[in-house]
Protein: 1-phosphatidylinositol 4,5-bisphosphate phosphodiesterase
Organism: Branchiostoma belcheri
Amino acid sequence: MYMVAADAKTAMTWKEGIRGLLHNYKANNVCPMTQFQKHWMRLSLQVSPSGKIPVRSITRTFASGKTEKMVFQSLKDLGLPNGKNDEIEPADFTFEKFFELYKKICPRTDIDDLFHKLNGGKEYLSVDQIINFLNEQQRDPRLNEILFPFFDRKRVVALIQKYEVDPEFTKKEWMSVEGFTRYLMSDENAPVFLDRLEEYQDMDQPLCHYYINSSHNTYLTGRQFGGKSSVEIYRQVLLAGCRCVELDCWDGKGEDQEPIITHGKAMCTDVLFKDVIHAIAETAFEASDYPVILSFENHCCKAQQYKLAKYCDEIFGDLLLKEPLEDYALEEGKVLPPPNALKRKILIKNKRLKPEMEKKQLELFWKGEGNLEVEEEEHSESGENGVSSPSEDGNPQEFKFNKSNSSSDIQEEGKNGSLKNKKSAMSLSQEEEQAMAMAQYQYQGATTNVHPCSAMSLSQEEEQAMAMAQYQYQGATTNVHPWLSSMVNYAQPVKFGGFDVAEDRNIHHNMSSFNESACLGYLKTSAIEFVNYNKRQMSRIYPKGARVDSSNYMPQIFWNAGCQMVALNYQTPDLSMQLNQGKFEYNGKCGYLLKPEFMRRPDKTFDPFAESPVDGVIAATIEVEVISGQFLSDKKVGTYVEVEMYGLPTDTIRKEFKTKTIPANGLNPQYNEEPFVFRKVVLPDLATLRFAVYDENNKLIGQRVLPLDGLQAGYRHVGLRTESNFPMSLPCLFCNINLMTYVPDGLGEFVDALNNPMQYLSQLEKRAMAMKAMGIDEKDIADVPASSGKKDKKAANGKSPATPSSSLGVDGKDGKAKTPTKESACPAPVSIESLKQEKQYIKLIKKQTKEMNGLKKRHDKEKAVMQKAQSSVVDKMVAGHQKEKQSVEKNLEKAKKKNGTNAAELESKLKSLVENHDAKVKEIVATQTKDFSELVAKCSKEEHEVKEGHFKQQCEVLKQLMKVAHEQQTKQITTIHEKQGKDLKGQQAKQSMDESKAIAQDKKIKNKAERERRIRELNSNNMKKFLEERKRLAMKQAREKENLEKQQGEQLEELDKEMDKWRESQEKEKVEDKLAQKPTAAV
């Protein structure tokens, strides 16, 4: 729009007033009633030359689906002129008359049906009925009751007084269907929390903690090959809330040598860099005060880079951030400044020299001591391989001054285009080169300004094919002018060397750019690492070069990874841009959105491909019932509505939910579809809901993207937007949105008990009293876990579960996995007594007993032989002595009888003989005693030696038997464990098959994709559950093995102790035998 004013003051007043209207975020989110008022105002102002409202203008409002006769009749019923060529006085055409006309032509039977459903057939809604409706159906049950209090009588009475049109009803505190309709179409019943449209987020977090609304190839108005460039597009993009714009800077080819902005040498028109900088300076902070990032793709020579820096310095002035903030130094480990600290500041993203090199060259430059030359051959940044060429150490180039070189030499260098593209630091494989061939251009000898006649003889397809075959993309220069380099601070692009390298360096102000293909590759291989990288520093994603039509990639997957600058082609109003604009409409449309907490905290781990609920985030269930549409098309066409969800891959549901087509009615079609159920939204914070209305030819009529964060539950009117996201005047959808906490199948009753414990306890008490009345003692009632029946899900959200809550592997009482217990996994302990009952031991004992008995017999025989021999010797000696004594005694008697003199001599001889005999007997007895005692000692020693040998043999046999018994126990427990594992796997497999079969046969699931998603979710949940069950079983079995090994060790210790006792007993017996030994004689 161009306007001329009488003076500057008037122009500024108009400018501020119009800007205030254009950038009023609330104006784009007004309620249907306000839209009606705006439309009525438009009709009232679009008068004929006579100053009246033509009836024809009114009939055009209701053109679709209704005949003009009906409109004329309705006007007649309202007492207004109703002829085709009639005109109406503006004073007679009040808003109330217009609204009555709307109700006559488009009766809201959908709201009437809801009204009668709530009031039970009466003509009004009472306060209690309204309270119940607002608290039960119009409120998200997940909301905090303190921050979002329930409706009470006072608030409801205020609503009645505000929206009820019948004074009698107002006095009685009733609400009629008219008042109810006006309330449902008011701002108080908006589909989103209106405070989300204001700036409500914390803007003091580091810059890398925000999503930043970003543009790619900002200068283009259409396709990137052979397209047109525009300065105005920069103004439009910045006014739309974009905070990162791209400037592809090239050497100017005209006489003025002014740097230009264009898409390389891809036959696009160009614009002057200076003009673009002026446009950015004018509009950078009109829509938002938060920082603007200029992403330079710099292909200019040093002389023209000086102009880039000069224009930025002169035109931006204090808006340009030339030095880092005092509290946020460019040092390792220092975090990026927050948006609040960078308000009304412009940041430049461009290559930067090493600090010491930059300082040296800048000093020389300001002294004017010479011109800069490249000391090394220049490397180029590949603009299509997803990396920037400088390493994270800084720019690898070194420069020197040569006074002999003049500025004209440098200009000539730029003029002749001698900045040649060298081999990239990152070499590409042949396959990669082939894959990227379609995205790389280098047109030999072409200029950036293309004359319209140059391609006149070629068709568009031929022109594109020729250029694609001849062009190769020329990378950005790394030969940076020190002045331009000094203007770069918190957005320093570096070559991406890997996530581990970036983590080790810990330089937050370094950032890297990735094309969509490279980024998808990193997400595929290192998704979690990518998320962690984006917690610390920024990344920019841009479309791959093959998108010559300026189409866009789907940005959601990159938002899921926490990428800040997901740059899109603003000139292409496709689905991707609609999602982008819908997302960034929140937070005052300031261009910055705070990422969820788990994507900012370093102690949290987040996998953007997660299919199970994230730690600390509650999954949600969303039900959307599309009831009707209003003013969808001014043509008499059929329409249908698609509802889609975008978020994590597991949350994204596209092209699955759509209503039936209502033929020949674009004015007020009634869909009355069954609710579309998004059963499990793992991460609501990142999810968006999209409504799209199509005609019967599948042409988009209108769309609306609503982030789930801030979506309101209940019956809501959703205003539609155009393909380019501009608000449509009257078109809207009437929907019922139900928001719930996701409850897994089988846990409904448990959740209900948590939600209403008093009711749950009262039910238990009633049942207990009923049992007591039947004579059942309370002591006889066991405490068991609550049952999880099939009606749980229905109790939780009105839907019966498609997945059974129990199976062969799940206990019906407590829902826990069964552990096979048919065989005891713990073998009985091995006792020493049980080992002594073994045949091998008994056989040994028998053998040893026999051996000992034989030894004892031999010893007894030896003792008997010695005893007999000794007795014989003694007997012979005694007999000889007796005979000799008798001979002496006879001689003595004879001598006495003769009274011989030798009697005394004979008595002496007898006495001597007796003494001699006694001495000999004593001597022989002593000898025999010694010999027999030695024999007894020898026998005892032999017996002890044999006993000791027997004891050793017994110990060896017992140990061997113990070892065999332990091996058998280990084998037994291993067999049992293997069987338990096999049984558990069998039970799990059967459970999985049964549950999958139940889902496959569930007639309530009519959508194939939903069925597959349920099965996929089931398999994922079962996988985790089964692994947990197997883990628990493995832990249990490991404990059993550990206990068995401990038990076996104790048994071996017990056997050793028992053997020690036996050994001590043998030693004591041996000592006692030795001490008890005394001279023994066989007399």
